[in-house]
Amino acid sequence: MKRVYSVSQINAYIRRMFTSDYALNHIYIKGEVSNCKYHSSGHIYFSIKDAKSTLSCVMFANARRQGLKFRMENGQTVVVGGNINVFERDGSYQLYASEIILDGVGVLYEEYERLKMKLYEEGLFDHEKKKAIPKNPKKVGIVTARTGAAIQDIVSIAKRRNPFVQLILYPAKVQGEGAGLSVARGIQVLDGMELDTIIIGRGGGSIEDLWGFNEEVVARAIYEAKTPIISGTGHETDNTIADYAADLRAATPSAACELAIPDVREIMAAIEGYRYQIQKWMDVQIASYQHRVEQYRIRINLLSPKNQLKQQQMQLIQLQNGLEAAIQKKTERYAHKLELYIQKLHGLSPSAKLTGGYGYITGQDGSPLRSVEQAQMGEKLSVYLSDGKIQAQIMEIQKEDAGKS
Asked: Is 62 within 8 Å of 44 (Cβ atoms)?
C-alpha cells in the first residue's frame, strides 16, 4: 500500500527544505514594490515584482529599526535582503526581509550576490572546513584601521578580559580603494607569525563603506590562512563576504574580541573548580589506598614469623594450662580414691582392730596364738595392744566345747 501524507506533513517537509538551503537563507532580490501596507503592529506587508513574476514579502517591526532607512512606497525599485521560507499554515512561501535598500546601490548588491554564490559553490563557506577557535590564546592578531572605534574597543575589552594575551595589530586600510588588498595582505602577514587567532573587522557603515570586506581577495586570503579567523564587520545586521568565509562570525569587532579572548576570571574559576575536583578525587584515592595499606599491614602481621610464634606461644600456654588442669583434676580424683583405699585398708588392718579392745597374742617363739591347743601351762605370752605390749603367763587353759553355741 502506498504511503499517504497529510497536508501538514508536506508543508513541514517543504519548510525544512527551504530552511536547509543556504542560498535561500541569505539572499538579496531586486524588484519593484507593490501592494505595500504598513500594519498598526509595525510590520510591513508588500510584494516585489519584475516583468514576469511577483514575490510576497514581509518585514517585521523588530527588523525595521536597522534594516529600513526610508519610507517605502509602491513603484520604488528596491533591493530586499533576507531569507525565503514557507508559512506552513497557508502552504505559501515569502521573503522575510531583514534589510531593504533603494536601487541606488543595487549594482553593488548584485555584485555581492554574484560573488557570494560563486564562492559558495566553490566551497569557501563550507562549515566542515572551518577551523576551531583556540580556547586559551596567547597571541591574537588584529587586522583593522590603526585609528577608530574598532581597535579601541578591542584593546579595551582584551585588557579587561585577559591582560596576559598579546595583541598584534596590522594597520590595514578598511575603506575605499585598495581596502580589500590591504585587509588580505594583513591576513597573510599575521598568518605567518604563528598566532593563535586573527580578528578582522571594522565598525558599521553603508555597503560602500564595508565593500573592502566583500572582495574576493579577502575571502580567499581567509580561506587559505592556517590561523583561525574571526570576522566582526559592521553592525549586527551587516553581513559581508568575509563573515561567510571566516571560521567564526561575530556581530561586531567588540563581539569578535570576546569570542577570541576568554575572560581570565572565568578561567580562574574553572581552574579552581578543577582543583577542587582533583583534590576531592585525590582524597578518595588516598583514603582507598590507606585502607588497602591497613589491610595489607594486618595480613602481614598475621603472616609474620613473630606473630605466628606469638600465636603458637599462646596455643602452647593454653595447652599447658589445659594439661595442668587435667593433671590437677586426675590428681585430685586419684587422691580421693587413695583416701578411700587407705580408709578401707585401715579398716582391715589388725592394728586398727586393737583400738576396739582387742589384742594380738604371740607365743614364746613369736608366732601368733590362734588356738588354745597351741598354749602350754606356764608358757609366757606377748599381748600386743593399740598402745603397747604386755607380757603374760598362762595360768589356766579352758577349751570351749565344739557343740556350744
From this structure: no
State how far the Cα of 76 lies from the Cα of 374, in Å rounded to an integer.
Answer: 183
**Cβ-contact 43, 53 below 8 angstroms:** no
For the record, the C-alpha cell of 117 comes out as 554564490
Fold annotation for 7-122? OB fold (Dihydrolipoamide Acetyltransferase, E2P) (2.40.50)
d(CA 16, CA 2) in angstroms, rounded, equals 23
> 360: Cβ–Cβ under 8 A, 6 or more apart, which residues?
350, 354, 368, 383, 384
Quick: pLDDT tens for 190-205.
999 999 999 999 987 7
Model-level pTM? 0.50
How many other C-beta atoms lie within 10 A of the C-beta of residue 181?
16
Name which CATH class applies to 136-262. alpha beta
d(CA 290, CA 302): 18
CB 180 within 8 A of CB 217: yes
Encode pLDDT of 261-315 as tens digits. 999 988 888 889 999 999 999 999 999 999 999 898 888 877 778 777 877 888 8
Spell out the domain ranges in the chain.
Answer: 7-122, 136-262, 269-308, 352-393
